[in-house]
Atlastin-1-like
Amino acid sequence: MSGHPVPIVVQNKETREFELDEEALRGVLLRPEVGDKPVCVVAVAGAFRTGKSFLLNFLVKYCVNEGSPNWLGDPSQPLDGFVWSSGMEGQTAGIYIWSKPFTIYAKSSGKKVAVILMDTQGTFDTQTSLRDSTYIFALTLLTSSVTVYNLMNNIREDDLTNLQTFSTYGASAQKEIKESRAFQNLLFLVRDWSFPRQHPCGHEGGQVVLEKVLGQLGEKAEKPMQASTHQRLMRQGLRQSFEKLECYLMPHIGLGAAEDSNFDGRPNQLSPQFVEHIKLLVPRLLAPERLVVKRSAARRGQPATGEELVDFIKTYMAVFREGKLVEPTSLAEMTARVCSNGARNIALEVYKNAMNSIVNPDEKSYETTLLSKQHLAYKRDAVAAYLRENQYAASSELFPVVHEVKEQLEKVSECMREVTPYATEFLLQSKNCHFKTYIILPINPDYFTIPI
Ligand SMILES: Nc1nc2c(ncn2[C@@H]2O[C@H](COP(=O)(O)OP(=O)(O)OP(=O)(O)O)[C@@H](O)[C@H]2O)c(=O)[nH]1
Ligand SMILES: [Mg+2]
């Protein structure tokens, strides 16, 4: 086997904090074969004991054999590489990467790309708290260009809720370092897909299932289900959080493999359907024409290098460590926060559209009194929209975020008092608020924005 797994994020047994082994990370990412090539990071994350490390070893095989037609190799050879095991105890702890970056000539860009394979600690094992699960998953989303979200049997509502929790936490770290890009690609990988008669295994079936799951509560559904605001906003948020969402449905590995206590991963013990789909799935992630390079936020989306990836990981871990982010203390609180934020965005959209409608692009000045008057009316509409859209608005003691958000909307009016005739920018920083509020009233209404 060419290479071995290297632990780069390790949990300190005493403090329970995750720590970066920077030397180990640099030892891989600063190798001469990486140089200043763009990097592609393919990570597998998701619930514990669901075959993540097992799958990654097929990705290693594909890279080692350079995607040759016979890349799966001798079917009687055991599967090794990232440590995997049967049994019920969680196996992978922290984050590992493969010691050897693989150089692949990416057809789309005509450049060589260094591929990094990443294995992660399973979420929600008996030893892993919500906090740790969120930490690992969010860090994975932030640092990979493709995250495989490994699921069992189906895509359930709680899989979406968990993903929302993890991505919200990751996004708040992006905000903290003034990065506002969405995460890159996410592939829902459903293992042991339960309904192959209804939707056949593979990518096409997966896309249909994903559309159903993400769309069934939205406008696209033929018969929209009774959707709570939270469910709609969660789906909307997930779509907006990723550049690309895909799904692949995998068949079961076969009872022979699953029930044999001596199973060592050799392909000839796996079901032929599983092997067939492994041969289709792996090139979907790693074939030269499909590689997705990690992009650097600091350089306006240019491909990131190994050196930059080291910096990302260090920066994000530092942001997490500083503890300024909202602790994901409970899923309910997190959900309330996301729901409130979604409702806030809707409310601000209501306000922005209404104000845009009265700003004349040819006018170079605005009547302050007119704007203030309209502002008061539109602010009322926005607050009403916020309360209507937010199912948590009533329980403010339970979810203080509601209070914060309402306060922000109120603050808009304070800013408006200072409106001047020309392009104006206000910066509001409330002591009690985590967010900055800008109001920009330029000549062109397209720029009339209120990002919060
Ligand atoms: N049913 C089923 N079992 C699988 C599949 N792939 C692998 N396994 C089995 O799942 C068990 C766990 O595999 P691992 O790769 O160690 O799982 P993991 O998700 O990395 O586990 P943690 O690192 O503990 O989170 C092994 O016994 C594999 O044989 C699959 O697609 N379906
Ligand atoms: Mg594992």
Summary: Residues 217-221, 416-452 have pLDDT under 50 and may be disordered.
